[in-house]
Amino acid sequence: MDATHSKSAFVYGQVRRALRSGRYAPGQRIDPATLAVEFNISPTPVRFALYRLVGEALIVDHARGGLHVPLLTEVALRDLYDWMERLLLMACDIGVAPAAPETGTLEIASADDDLVKSTWKLFDAIARATTHKSLYQAVKQANDRLAPIRRAKQGLIEHSFEEISELNRHWQTRDVAALKSALRDYHERRKQLVPCIVALLNDRSDYPN
Length: 209
Fold this sequence. Notes:
Strand content: under 5%
Strand order of the largest sheet: 1-3-2
Radius of gyration: 18 Å
Low-confidence stretches: none
Helix content: 55-70%
Number of domains: 2
Largest sheet: 3 strands, antiparallel
Number of helices: 9
Mean pLDDT: 87
CATH architecture of the largest domain: Up-down Bundle
CATH class of the largest domain: Mainly Alpha
CATH topology of the largest domain: Four Helix Bundle (Hemerythrin (Met), subunit A)
Shape: globular
């Protein structure tokens, strides 16, 4: 791997983690020149990294408007929630493969835990346990796309700690029927709140009209 590709891979990993952590809000512009200064590298590997994220739908390219974190419409957000729900239900139906890697126990001790991060880890574990590579990659991409939205909408969902704790409990005990039911309820609550979530994201966004 040459220096440019190595630097590009580094920036890709850093920005992808930043997107998942909520550093960049939905609709926010991501400036390659600013990142080049931040990482003390030339703009070329930064652009390679960002366009790799464009290919994964984690960033959108609005040409002269620049690169932005996606700001979803109500239709697109409802579709994304529905897609994630279907993927996770499929993973539940496939089940844990005999050769599944050890995922460890996800501990969610209190409401002070990072529930956005815990949600990402739980859904990732459910998909990874199937050892179905295509399904896992699809869940991973949807998980990454939803992470900044989960971060931005915190406070809209009541009893979110109890909700993720219930999902985790069903997963740890491998109660598939209860897990599937809880996943449907989890996503239905968010689909019902889509107009509120999109309005909240629009209020916080610097995305150009």
